[in-house]
Write a structure and sequence with these properties.
The protein contains 15 helices and 15 strands. By secondary structure, it is an alpha/beta fold. The longest helix has 20 residues.
């Protein structure tokens, strides 16, 4: 089925902290996402699955019977008993309805992931509450009772999946997910999380870059710790292009699961990062273009309602196939801390992944610990761990996100590909495809506002030119991307991509994100394409969907026109 699935249940809104009305994990989080997705007409476009409680047998691979029994018992407890039970778990409050909501979240995540794996749905999003990625085998914590994404992955493995990648962009480390698959080479776990050398919760040494798995799972656990706050789109996309996308391409998963937390977003008091809501659409789009496109996003954290709701809605909108919104400005050089982490991760994993092989023999920076000398133990504080912000600060972030939303273009296209040798009407297309002798064709009318023979924001060519004006990607490394001088409408020779797919991630994408083009013109004058060249072009075209709202004008030679059309349609 070529549809996007969604799963949620009203009961996920029916629990709260009895004794602390300021607790940031509260019903409004879930409601804000549902309301925004409804306002944008996204829910009605999805195939909705009915959420059902997870079974005891399904829970067994990830959680002990003792933990399940304790959680079951809380359903009949009074407030004082709930306080006492909550004090046994780190950063967790328990309500008499928490267990019911947790069961529905876990069951919904399992069914949605299985429907996508089996091909009944194209992709999907679980708008789940409570979140799950902190929950461990014997212990709930961090607002999480059961580990939704770990249960979904475990079930998918039992039902035939060979390889699963879990991308965890929540701002906290998903230690529960990491521990579940630490010895398993069937699951690649990648986490970008606030760490600050152990100073930030969950204050675990295992959240560091050198925790790479054990036994068969060695090399299949990738931590990307954030050691400073205020990281931006540029910093996150540096991780994305340097590590996340290349290693997932090499892993080639059957199923991609996202622990989709929106606490890295602008305004979140727990994350204190500066990722814009639109950037989550870019993350999602790029993951959809690798492997078989079977992607499921399961909601985790996010505690500033405006950016949480917008980031989640743009994720679902992207899964539905709408154009990726333009970022409001091009990216810049990542900060020094991000660069250091990239080097540490690549050098540590260089013997496990071919895409990091160039970093063999480079010594990483020794880990630094600034966390507690002694780990905290029960009884834990049952009040909200997040300090309240001043009203003026809260209003500042509300206005900032409101401004970002107002400037985000959400234009959709009824049809995606205009093919000049098949039809004449060019209105409303996202991609234009024409032969070299048809420069008169008006492609993307009303989108680019110009004829295809006028300069695009970026012109990509494949002709090994040496005219002195064209930038040849073969001459650049990723470190050169932000120093090279660019013309107003740069021309890029991308011939290197035909033989080296890494050039897409390491050079082309960072360079294009720096330019932040309004549209892209591509010229491919080859008379034939080898299978490997066609494969690399397919990857490039897929990743270009994240840029310029997916808008492209492509000129090809007669001999390869159908091959390129097949690549674009794929």
């Amino acid at each position: 089925m070529d549809r996007t699935g969604v799963v949620f249940d009203q009961k996920m809104e029916e629990y709260f902290c009895h004794w602390d009305p300021s607790y940031v994990e509260e019903p409004g989080r879930w409601r804000s996402v549902i309301d925004r997705c409804t306002d944008l007409g996204l829910i009605e476009r999805c195939h909705r699955l009915k959420s059902r409680p997870v079974t005891a047998k399904e829970i067994e691979p990830c959680h002990s019977k003792e933990l399940v029994q304790i959680l079951e018992n809380t359903a009949s407890m009074g407030v004082e008993q709930l306080k006492k039970a909550s004090s046994q778990y780190d950063c967790l409050y328990i309500h008499e309805n928490s267990w019911a909501a947790a069961q529905l979240s876990a069951g919904g995540g399992i069914d949605l992931s299985q429907a996508v794996l089996d091909g009944h749905l194209k992709n999907g999003m679980g708008i789940l509450r409570p979140p799950g990625h902190h929950a461990m085998y014997n212990e709930s914590c961090g607002y999480c009772y059961l580990n939704n994404v770990a249960l979904a992955a475990s079930h998918a493995l039992e039902r035939g999946a060979k390889k699963i990648v879990i991308v965890d962009w929540d701002v906290h480390h998903g230690q529960g997910t990491q521990r579940q698959f630490y010895n398993d080479n069937r699951v690649l776990y990648i986490s970008i999380h606030r760490y600050e050398h152990g100073f930030w919760w969950p204050n675990l040494r295992e959240s560091e870059y050198d925790a790479i798995g054990e036994g068969k799972g060695r090399g299949f656990n990738i931590n990307l710790p954030l050691n400073v706050t205020g990281n931006t789109n540029s910093d996150y996309l540096a991780f994305w292009h340097s590590i996340v996308l290349p290693v997932i391409l090499e892993f080639s998963p059957d199923l991609t699961l996202i622990s989709a937390g929106y606490d890295p977003a602008v305004g979140c008091p727990e994350g204190e990062q500066n990722v814009t809501p639109a950037c989550f659409a870019h993350f999602t789009q790029s993951l959809m273009q690798i492997g078989n496109g079977k992607v499921v996003a399961l909601l985790e954290g996010g505690y500033f309602l405006p950016s949480l709701a917008e980031g989640a809605a743009l994720t679902l909108r992207t899964l539905l196939g709408d154009p990726t919104p333009l970022l409001l400005e091009g990216i810049s050089q990542p900060n020094p801390s991000i660069k250091e982490t990239i080097l540490n991760v690549k050098s540590t994993l260089s013997s496990y992944w071919t895409c990091f092989g160039d970093y063999a023999g480079i010594n990483p920076t020794p880990p630094l610990w600034k966390g507690p000398d002694v780990a905290e133990t029960a009884p834990y504080d049952i009040m909200c761990p997040t300090p309240a912000r001043s009203e003026s600060e809260e209003n500042h972030f509300k206005e900032l996100v409101k401004s970002l939303i107002s400037e985000t273009t959400l234009r959709s296209f009824e049809r995606k590909i205009f093919c000049s040798w098949e039809e004449d009407n060019t209105e409303g297309y996202q991609t234009g495809l024409a032969l070299f002798n048809e420069y008169k064709v008006q492609t993307l009318v009303g989108v680019t506002g110009e004829s295809v023979n006028l300069p695009a924001s970026v012109h990509i060519m494949f002709n090994n030119t040496t005219d002195g004006q064209t930038i040849n990607l073969a001459d650049l490394s990723r470190d050169d991307v932000f120093g090279v001088k660019l013309a107003e409408n740069p021309v890029l020779d991308c011939s290197q991509i035909l033989s080296s797919v890494n050039t897409v991630f390491q050079v082309l994408l960072p360079l294009l994100y720096r330019v932040n083009p309004q549209n892209i013109k591509i010229t491919i004058d080859h008379q034939t394409l080898e299978d490997s060249e066609a494969s690399n072009l397919k990857l490039m075209f897929g990743q270009l969907q994240s840029l310029a709202g997916g808008r492209k004008v492509v000129f090809v030679s007669e001999n390869i026109k159908n091959a390129i059309l097949d690549i674009i349609r794929a």
